[in-house]
Specification:
With 434 residues, this protein is an all-beta fold. The chain has no helices and 40 strands.
C-alpha cells in the first residue's frame, strides 16, 4: 500500500569546516550552516530522508529548479561562492507532495542585513531612520523577499517574519500598523515573495497563501477585495513549488510543471492572452517548469521554461514471426501531450498512445518506428527504433561422416527461437524450440 510522504532534510558535510561550530539543527533535521573554503574546495552533500512509497525528487536553489537534480541527494565536487544559496527539495508520490524547509549553504556566517530607505521600518532594525550602512536584522535566515516598503524573511526553523509598511495588511499579522521590528507571520513556510503591497508564501504541504493589497485580484483568492490583513488561501494553490510577485500581480509554479498567474493584466503581464485582471489563477500557456522573474515594481514578467523533451526514446527490438513487440516513449513538457506513431515515415492509424504494440508480426513489419509528440510548446519527433527479424550469426559447417552422426548448429541473433531444418530425402528432420 502506498504511504504518504514524511520528510526530513539535512546537510551531510564531507571534508568541510563549519565556521560556527556545528551549525544549528531545526526540529525537522535541517542543518543550517556555513562553509569555510580551503583553496576553493569543499565537499558538502545535501540529502533528504523520506518515509513513503515510490518517491520522486526535484531540487531547487533560491526558488529556481535545478535541472537533472532528481535524486535524494545532491553533491558538490568543488563548492564555490556561486553555489551559496537556499536549497530545498520537492518530494512527490501518487498520494501527494511535501516540500522540505530550505537549507542554507554559504561561505560566511553573516546575518541578514539591510540598508537604505526606512520611513516605515522596512529595514527591521527597530528604527525609522534611513541607513547608508548595513544594519543587522536577524540570524539563521534562509530566504527573503522585498516589497516596495515592506520586507519578509524566512528562518531555518520554517518561521516567516515581516516588517515595514502594513497599510494593506501585507505583513500578514492581522493589522494595518507599520512595524520597525520583525513580527511573526506563519510557521512551516518554505518559500516567500513580495509585490508592491502584497505578499505570498508557500508552506511545506505545497499550499500557497497570500495577504495584503488585492484590488486587482493579485492574492488569487477568487475575489477583488480591497485587502486582506491575514493570510488567505489561493484558489487552486496546491502542489505549489515556487512563487514570485510583480507590482500588482503574482505567479506560481506547480509540481506538474504548469505556471499560473493572477492579478493585474493591464500590460499583459499574466501572459494568458486576455486583458482583464484575474482574481483567480489562470494558466500561462507554453510554460513548463519555468524559472520566472518579476519584481515588486515590475509590470512585466520574464520566464524561461524547459522545452518539450524526450527522456526515454523508443528502443530497437528483434521480433519473432507471429509474435508481438511494444515500443514506448517517455517525454515531459507543457501538456497535455499527444502522441502519433509512424512506420517508415507513414502514419500508423490509431497509434496515438505513449506506447504502440504490434501483434502477429510478419516480415512486412520490419522497419523503422518513430513517434511524434506534441505539447503546448511544439512538436518533437523521436529517433527511429528499428524492428528486425533474427538473423543467422554463423552458417552451419559442412561435414562428411559416412555411417556416423552429424550435428549441425546455427547460432542466431536472438534468444528462444523456433527452428525447422530442411534436408535431402532420407535424413531425419528436426523442428522445435531451442
Amino acid at each position: 500500500m502506498l504511504q504518504r510522504l514524511y520528510i526530513s532534510l539535512f546537510l551531510l558535510l564531507l571534508a568541510w569546516t563549519m565556521v560556527c561550530g556545528q551549525g544549528e539543527v531545526s526540529q525537522f533535521g535541517i542543518v543550517h550552516g556555513t562553509v569555510k573554503l580551503a583553496n576553493g574546495i569543499a565537499m558538502p552533500r545535501v540529502s533528504v530522508t523520506v518515509t513513503g512509497t515510490l518517491p520522486a525528487y526535484q531540487w531547487f536553489k533560491d526558488g529556481v529548479l535545478l535541472g537533472g537534480q532528481t535524486s535524494s541527494s545532491m553533491s558538490f565536487a568543488s563548492f564555490q561562492f556561486t553555489n551559496s544559496g537556499s536549497y530545498r527539495v520537492v518530494v512527490t508520490n501518487s498520494l501527494g507532495l511535501v516540500i522540505s524547509r530550505p537549507a542554507l549553504l554559504s561561505v560566511s556566517n553573516a546575518p541578514l542585513q539591510a540598508w537604505g530607505y526606512n520611513e516605515y521600518g522596512q529595514l527591521g532594525n527597530g528604527s525609522y531612520t534611513d541607513s547608508n550602512l548595513p544594519v543587522s536584522v536577524a540570524s539563521n535566515v534562509v530566504a527573503m523577499a522585498e516589497g516596495s516598503k515592506h520586507s519578509l524573511f524566512l528562518k531555518a526553523d520554517g518561521t516567516l517574519w515581516a516588517m515595514g509598511q502594513d497599510n494593506y495588511g501585507q505583513l500578514g499579522n492581522g493589522s494595518n500598523s507599520a512595524t520597525n521590528l520583525p513580527v511573526s507571520v506563519a510557521s512551516n513556510v518554505v518559500a516567500v515573495a513580495a509585490g508592491l503591497g502584497h505578499s505570498l508564501f508557500v508552506k511545506a504541504d505545497g499550499t500557497l497563501w497570500a495577504m495584503g493589497a488585492n484590488v486587482s485580484g493579485q492574492l488569487g483568492n477568487g475575489s477583488a477585495s480591497y485587502s486582506e490583513v491575514d493570510p488567505v488561501a489561493v484558489v487552486g494553490g496546491s502542489n505549489v513549488v515556487a512563487v514570485t510577485a510583480g507590482n500588482i500581480d503574482s505567479l506560481f509554479l506547480k509540481s506538474d510543471g504548469t505556471l499560473w498567474a493572477m492579478g493585474d493584466n493591464s500590460f499583459g503581464e499574466l501572459g494568458d492572452g486576455f486583458s482583464p485582471a484575474q482574481s483567480s489563477p489562470v494558466s500561462v500557456p507554453g510554460m513548463y517548469l519555468a524559472t520566472v522573474i518579476s519584481g515588486c515594481n515590475a509590470q512585466h514578467t520574464l520566464a524561461v521554461g524547459l522545452p518539450l523533451r524526450i527522456t526515454s526514446p523508443p528502443a530497437s527490438q528483434t521480433g519473432l514471426l507471429g509474435g508481438s513487440v511494444t515500443f514506448s516513449v517517455t517525454a515531459d513538457g507543457a501538456g497535455p501531450l499527444a502522441y502519433q506513431w509512424y512506420f517508415n515515415g507513414t502514419v500508423i492509424s490509431g497509434a496515438t498512445g505513449q506506447s504502440y504494440t504490434l501483434t502477429g508480426m510478419t516480415v512486412t513489419n520490419v522497419g523503422s518506428y518513430t513517434v511524434a509528440i506534441t505539447g503546448r510548446c511544439g512538436t518533437l519527433i523521436s529517433s527511429g527504433a528499428t524492428l528486425t527479424l533474427p538473423s543467422v550469426m554463423v552458417q552451419p559447417t559442412n561435414a562428411v561422416a559416412a555411417g556416423g552422426t552429424v550435428t549441425l548448429s546455427v547460432p542466431t541473433s536472438s534468444g528462444m527461437m523456433l527452428y525447422f531444418w530442411i534436408c535431402p530425402t532420407g535424413c531425419q528432420m528436426y523442428s522445435g524450440l531451442a
